[in-house]
Amino acid sequence: MLPSNHHRSHPEAAKSKLRPECGELDQLTILKLGGSAITDKARECTPDIPAIQRIADQLRAYDLPLILIHGGGSYAHPFVTRSSIDRGLRDRSQLRSVAETEFYLSQLTRIIYASLLLRNKLPVPFHPMSFVTFDEGKVKRVLLDPIRKALQAGLLPLLHGDLVFDESQGIGVLSGDLLASLIGLRLGASRVLLGCDVDGVYSENPKTFPNATLIPEVTSENFHLVLDASRGPSGDATGGMGEKVRQALRLAKNGCECYIFNLREKYALARLLERDKIKGTRFVPWTNSRKSSRRSRRQA
Ligand code: ADP
Q: Which of 36, 65, 98, 158 suits a disulfide with 123, CB 3.0-4.6 Å?
């Protein structure tokens, strides 16, 4: 059974503890839990329960505003690529895959949800299909008010990469990485942390090139290095490391610090949240970009 909240206080007292309308969200962190780190990508709909529990353990003591986004991993990619819905809706037979993908994604959400509740965290789920639309594969509309309200109340919004409706193509894929940068910029997050199953961006894919070297820091001077390194084909419906790098650069250009790091590495997440040094790739905010970040928040 899930534990009850033993610290429930008088409604008036609770009200005064609600986060204020503005100000505190300046310390907002967005954390993406990559599908490669929380599922077995080689086996359909297979969660990595110990990995999810270790992540939830590391979040237990963290008390600043946080939004969690999980990737689909083996709960989404197989259905999306098999039915080609990532290239739009062309045939009624694809609708079954849309319904199934939504069903399996929500199963993964519930596993993470339960792990967090068991540790007295207070997540609330938001499904991007119901608050984001696309047109021609690009974000058209986003409604973030409910997520903002949840944060202000002290809850932990739990989102995921998702299928979304596209005005011209029927359906599109909103990757967890794009969602992280989109809401990171719109809500003015101070940091976006993209966790996956490798230590960061390497000179080449470290799984196929064991001698590849880690790129620890990306700035406005050397950013072409990570773009070149992650350009290879991903075989993944959401663009693999290339998409992660593009979104991390978009954030850094707009003044938001971003990390690509290994969620499977023991305590890496807890240390990163505590702002301790870890092995990973840090995308340094570009100089003079803070001043433009308010404008980009509106445009993002
Ligand atoms: P997630 O599902 O967690 O979002 P992906 O599987 O899409 O993550 O991307 C992570 C994978 O990207 C790694 O497992 C790695 O094999 C691959 N990859 C490709 N190129 C690189 C690179 N230059 N540096 C690091 N990883 C890379």
A: 158
The upper half-sphere exposure of residue 98, i.e. CA atoms within 13 Å in the direction of its Cβ, equals 20
| Ligand 1 atom closest to the CA of 204, numbered from 1 | 23
Answering whether pTM is above 0.70, one says: yes
> Tens of pLDDT along 32-87?
999 999 999 899 999 999 999 999 999 999 999 999 999 999 999 989 999 999 99
- Cα first-last separation, the chain: 41
For ligand 1, pick from 33, 36, 55, 86 the residue to mutate: most ligand atoms within 8 Å of CB. 36
Distance 14 CA to ligand 1 centre (A): 43
Q: Separation of 270 CA from ligand 1 center, angstroms?
A: 21
Instruction: Tell how strand 132-135 and strand 138-142 pair up.
Output: antiparallel
C-beta separation of 232 from 226 below 8 A: no
Handedness of CA 161, 143, 24, 259 (dihedral sign): positive
